[in-house]
Amino acid sequence: FQVVACSDKDDKDNRQLLHSYIKMQSNTDSSGASGTYSQTVGLLYVFNLIVGTGALALPKAFQSAGWLLSITLLTFSAFMSYVAATFVIEALSVANAVLSKKRRVEYDDVVVADGPSTFEIAKKVEVSEMASMFLSKVSLVFSYFAIIIYLFGDLAIYSTTVPKSAMNIVCSTINASIVKSSDPCHESWPEILTRMTVYRFFVIIFVVVVCLPMVIAGITKTRHIQIMTTLSRWAAFILMISLATMQLSSQGAAAHPPAYNFHGFGSLFGCAVYAFMCHHSIPSLITPMRSKENVFGKIAVVYGIVGVFYFTLSLTGAFAFEHVQDIYTLNFLHDDNTSFVYSIIDYFLALFPIITLTSSYPIIALTLINNFKVVKDILCPKTGQENESLLEEDNQVEDNDTDDERDTRNARSERTVFDVLVPTLVLALPTFLSLLTDDMLLLASITGSFPGVAVQFAIPCLLVTAARKHARSVLNFPVPRKNNSPFQSPIWIVLISSWAGFSMIMVLLNLVGVKF
């Protein structure tokens, strides 16, 4: 900051006030520095965030849509996703400048000159906070509802992928021939125990027995679970690429996908959006970086590496297996390799989605519940009369009440129908969808194509448009070149909007069965 004293008070008072202001800034910086990391580590976190379990649906989508169409669409979708990511970073820098200006208002006798330094990304401002800063109430509610619907889709995918993986571990082989959900789990089992029945049983077990207690307890992912999830993800993807490559080199291609099949456009686009989703977490990953030099270019390199990674995973899988499963790890289960080592690898790959998604489910559910509460506060804010009535109730509390009795009374008074209904809805609706279908590719396509488009494309465009306007009209200073997205022309926002609209129409036509 460039600080200039401009008061009629004596120099001693100014120096004391200036000293207290700088001390506050240094304390803020030092408190945040403990959680910082190098730029390389931050970029690695971005890579890990992008490469999630959504990639498991890509090989099936590649095989359905054709290899040439898949490469073209995934490349273009990755580029558009990168453009939107740069928009989020630029909006984040403007949000930091806004917070900087608010802090300076508290020190009337010290003027901190506006300049490029105020746009430095030093404080984490979540996407929802930026939406509250820059967007109108209508756009704000739209953003929250888009995130809510996307998180609902996330939970439906989780509560489908885990039980389906468990069902296929228990039931007989799926790679020898095409099986139906109505087929018995095992030939020796009763006919009522079909694959779908066993799958639905695992859905109930997963949601009610495993996840519900964690959601009630408010369990979040710990550092140890995060490390375990990251290591298992890297091991699983490397093993899948290696095994599929070995199978191709030793046995040749088991399938010959066409160059293009536009009927598979919908599932491919939805999976591509879902596979590159990271925008809602960008502030949490970019802010702690100690150096943000050339961050746009280095994130572009990360996107390029992720793209190559996805191409390798999807193309090897699309050609190595005659029938690619919608959860790609299942293709390696119960295969012809019966050695002990291969069996360990196959079961590890089948358990991989169960391990990673079970630890993430309660976090997504709690995030969804909190978003519902925020929307409720936006649409139905408490009036002054309600606040006064609450104060009157508090004043009527008897003096001889113990602390425990008072806490119990407060908890009961604060618990409303909304507080019971929302968690029930958050768990019940995705579970109901999972009980209806075990088609993870369909769920990923719909989640990525509609709410995913809003989260990945629409919200970043709204944020950067409003942030640029705020910087010019309120902050009276343009966004510095260092913090500027490389895509400054309004044409890019029009292009992203057109691409998102065209793709959503194509997905909708595919879903209703229109042939191309």
UniProtKB/TrEMBL annotation:
<feature type="transmembrane region" description="Helical">
    <location>
        <begin position="442"/>
        <end position="467"/>
    </location>
</feature>
<keyword id="KW-1133">Transmembrane helix</keyword>
<keyword id="KW-0812">Transmembrane</keyword>
<feature type="transmembrane region" description="Helical">
    <location>
        <begin position="416"/>
        <end position="436"/>
    </location>
</feature>
<comment type="similarity">
    <text>Belongs to the TMEM104 family.</text>
</comment>
<keyword id="KW-0325">Glycoprotein</keyword>
<feature type="compositionally biased region" description="Acidic residues">
    <location>
        <begin position="389"/>
        <end position="405"/>
    </location>
</feature>
<dbReference type="GO" id="GO:0016020">
    <property type="term" value="C:membrane"/>
</dbReference>
<feature type="transmembrane region" description="Helical">
    <location>
        <begin position="138"/>
        <end position="158"/>
    </location>
</feature>
<feature type="transmembrane region" description="Helical">
    <location>
        <begin position="491"/>
        <end position="512"/>
    </location>
</feature>
<feature type="transmembrane region" description="Helical">
    <location>
        <begin position="299"/>
        <end position="321"/>
    </location>
</feature>
<feature type="transmembrane region" description="Helical">
    <location>
        <begin position="198"/>
        <end position="219"/>
    </location>
</feature>
<feature type="transmembrane region" description="Helical">
    <location>
        <begin position="68"/>
        <end position="94"/>
    </location>
</feature>
<keyword id="KW-0472">Membrane</keyword>
<dbReference type="Pfam" id="PF01490">
    <property type="entry name" value="Aa_trans"/>
</dbReference>
<feature type="transmembrane region" description="Helical">
    <location>
        <begin position="260"/>
        <end position="278"/>
    </location>
</feature>
<dbReference type="InterPro" id="IPR013057">
    <property type="entry name" value="AA_transpt_TM"/>
</dbReference>
<feature type="transmembrane region" description="Helical">
    <location>
        <begin position="341"/>
        <end position="369"/>
    </location>
</feature>
<feature type="transmembrane region" description="Helical">
    <location>
        <begin position="231"/>
        <end position="248"/>
    </location>
</feature>
<feature type="domain" description="Amino acid transporter transmembrane">
    <location>
        <begin position="40"/>
        <end position="476"/>
    </location>
</feature>
<feature type="region of interest" description="Disordered">
    <location>
        <begin position="389"/>
        <end position="410"/>
    </location>
</feature>
<feature type="transmembrane region" description="Helical">
    <location>
        <begin position="43"/>
        <end position="62"/>
    </location>
</feature>
<protein>
    <recommendedName>
        <fullName>Amino acid transporter transmembrane domain-containing protein</fullName>
    </recommendedName>
</protein>
